[in-house]
Amino acid sequence: MELRHLQYFMTMCQELHFTRASEKLGISQPTLSQQIRALELETDTLLFDRVGKKVVVTEAGKILYRHCVRMFDELGQAQTAIRELKGLRRGEIRIGSSGNHMLINSIISFHQSYPGIQINVAELSTEETRQGLLDNRLDLGVVFLPVEGEQLESIPLYTEKLSLAVPYHHPLAASDEVELAKLKHAPMALLPRKFLVRQMVDIATKSKGFRFDPVVEMTTLDSLLELVNRNIALTILPDTFLSGVDPKRTRIITIVDPTPQRVVGIVYRNDMFISSATKVFIDYLKQTF
């Protein structure tokens, strides 16, 4: 089997559509069909089947796909290890983060020391980061802990607290703290429930016998803060994010009884090769926090 044929096969498994897969690979649809057929002849088994208008992966195809994923992971690790031996100062670190605000200082410091290393940060939910690590699409995550998985290792960094953000002219703006139960009927703008910050809020309100019914749900912290500044709703967000807001527009109030909080940490695969760049970046994170 040629690696090229296996790459075609994996892309077809991911797309389950010959036209989309061929466009993604940059080849013609007949060429892709021919290469898949050649692979089926070589393995002496059907790898894809048609059910109506849909293309589905056969059981044999699923077995081959699982082995291909592991094989390409190993090849990627080998290439990284060889580059490390050559002392290559260029590379890439792929990071999943529960909020880009968590990483900005560390990224600036790291880039000043290692300008040749490219850092790609995706703002994801904790579950999306976990899956990205398991699928080898990410090198590490900075997320709320714990994260489940035998293949995952974690390093605690700090405890993140959630606070209330209100417009500067709001009746609560002069308060230093507020009991969570007193916010029961306040108009709230919150993250969707797939985000751990939202789950932290829901757990805290459940302990007080209620749950917020937000007037708006949005997936970015900046968007939620803008709703506060426009006097549409209040919001509850991480302190590390709210520390950078303009006090002339927004007031930050500590939530008590209870204070929603959770440990933030680094997560990475314990069964994969870790590049020197990634190791150094982990050290930068530990120094920052």
TrEMBL record:
Signal peptide per UniProt: none
One MF annotation (Gene Ontology) recorded for this entry: DNA binding
Q: Which keywords accompany this UniProt record?
A: DNA-binding, Transcription, Transcription regulation
Gene3D superfamilies referenced in this protein's UniProt entry, alphabetically: 3.40.190.290, Winged helix-like DNA-binding domain superfamily/Winged helix DNA-binding domain
Organism superkingdom: Bacteria
The answer, when asked if Disulfide bond is one of the entry's keywords, is no
Keyword DNA-binding assigned to the entry: answer is: yes
In terms of InterPro entries, this protein maps to:
HTH-type_LysR_regulators, LysR_HTH_N, LysR_subst-bd, WH-like_DNA-bd_sf, WH_DNA-bd_sf
Q: Which residues form the HTH lysR-type domain?
A: 1-58
Its cellular-component GO annotations read:
cytosol
Cite the PROSITE patterns for this sequence.
HTH_LYSR
Q: Which family does it belong to?
A: Belongs to the LysR transcriptional regulatory family.
Which PANTHER family does this UniProt record tie to the protein? HTH-TYPE TRANSCRIPTIONAL REGULATOR YBHD (PTHR30419), NITROGEN ASSIMILATION TRANSCRIPTIONAL ACTIVATOR-RELATED (PTHR30419:SF8)
**Name recorded for this polypeptide:** LysR family transcriptional regulator
Its organism's taxonomic lineage begins at: Bacteria, Bacillati, Bacillota, Bacilli, Bacillales
